[in-house]
Request: fold
Amino acid sequence: MADYLPNGDPQLALFVEQFGNTLASIPPETLNLTEQDITQYGIKAADFAAKLLAATADETKGPKATLLKNESRAVITQLTRRYAQMIKRLPNISDEQLQALGITIDDRNRRPIATPSESPRIIVTGVIGRTVTIELEHSGEGRGKPDGVATATIFTHLGTEPPASVSDWTFAGNVSRTTVEVPFAPSTTGTTAWITAFWSNAKGQNGPATPPISVDLPAAGVVPVEKTQETPVRLAA
Reply:
């Protein structure tokens, strides 16, 4: 495996911070790790960042601070390499997840990226004024994106019914995250908003669109409220 870890201390501190954040964003069972493993990695990464700061700050730098920094660097470097080697051997880890972790993808291990075969499930988690917060999930498999999916594309429509023609939908955004705020234009009357989405892989190949869901929005002047179970959310037939 090519060496993906930076040589410089500041660059390594940034790398391990991002590595730890990415670990925390992937379900632990996908990585064959426990939540405690990921928490401990974050603690070791933060320790290296703190020791590096102490070793370079004018008021604290010196031989002892440098020694402590080097010891912390050795610990986080060894832990990062151990996790990376283990993760690369997992059969279900995707190239996109390896790239997000900063791990070099060997050509001999590269797997073809399939076109998404499922549509996202859209869960409305909040409505504040005319901004709708949604969560994009596996269809029937829980939170997060399916393997091989890089982004989701979201379209919206305002009206009593979802449009039959693709051209009548409004492009709302292309996102890599699964929690998304979708704002709608002000209105003097209440409005029904429709939302649909589809997954895309890193090659830009699209999967099927999810059946549109609807959310009843208030007029622009209504005091915003958090969504409750009584907020009407309907699935189109």
Notes: The CA atoms of residues 132 and 182 lie 5 Å apart. Residues 228-233 have pLDDT under 50 and may be disordered. The helical segments are 9-25, 28-31, 35-56, 63-88, 95-101. The radius of gyration is 23 Å.
